[in-house]
Amino acid sequence: MGMNIRSDDDENDLIATINTTPLVDIMLVLLIIFLITVPVVIHTVPVKLPEEKTAPYVTQPINIQIAVNKAGDIFWNEKYIADKATLISRLQVEAKKTPQPEVHIRGDQVTKFAAIDEVISAVKHAGIGKIAFVTTPVAAP
């Protein structure tokens, strides 16, 4: 679409033209993209996916519960652990068991990450393969 405005009595001719070439280029590219992607989306194998409900967290007696409070103190099943060496030695004993227990870390919301990282590195150093973080579930609306 173009428009020319011309006046015979004015020396400076005013030409106002709308250039639609970039608009047409963009529309053609979008049309090609839609023509390519729509058949891929429509032609899929009809599969009914399984429905899964999340089970609430259940503590098994073989799991190790390690809690870190906001001050950075470490607790093993509610018993205070004084230093990292004690924690590692106790974890190494547990790591030799078959099947190997999981370590569930319960960190306070305002705990500095350095304290949590200390527990994670101790668990790795002891050779335990499974670490989980315990959180509070969100209330359903």
Automatic annotation (TrEMBL):
Q: Transmembrane residues, as ranges?
A: 26-45
This protein's source sits in the domain of life called: Bacteria
Primary localisation category: membrane
Q: Which UniProt keywords apply?
A: Cell inner membrane, Cell membrane, Membrane, Protein transport, Transmembrane, Transmembrane helix, Transport
GO annotations of cellular component type:
plasma membrane
Subcellular location per UniProt equals: Cell inner membrane; Cell membrane
Q: Which GO terms describe its molecular function?
A: transmembrane transporter activity
Coiled-coil regions listed: none
Name any Gene Ontology BP term: protein transport
Asked if the record carries the keyword Transmembrane, the reply is yes
Membrane topology note: Single-pass type II membrane protein
Instruction: Indicate whether Thylakoid appears among the record's keywords.
Output: no
Role this protein plays: Involved in the TonB-dependent energy-dependent transport of various receptor-bound substrates.
Sorted alphabetically, which PANTHER family does this protein's record hold? BIOPOLYMER TRANSPORT PROTEIN EXBD (PTHR30558:SF12), EXBD MEMBRANE COMPONENT OF PMF-DRIVEN MACROMOLECULE IMPORT SYSTEM (PTHR30558)
Assembly and partners are described as: The accessory proteins ExbB and ExbD seem to form a complex with TonB.
* Family recorded in the similarity comment: Belongs to the ExbD/TolR family.
Q: Could you tell me what this protein is called?
A: Biopolymer transporter ExbD
Query: Which organism's genome codes for this protein?
Result: Acinetobacter wuhouensis
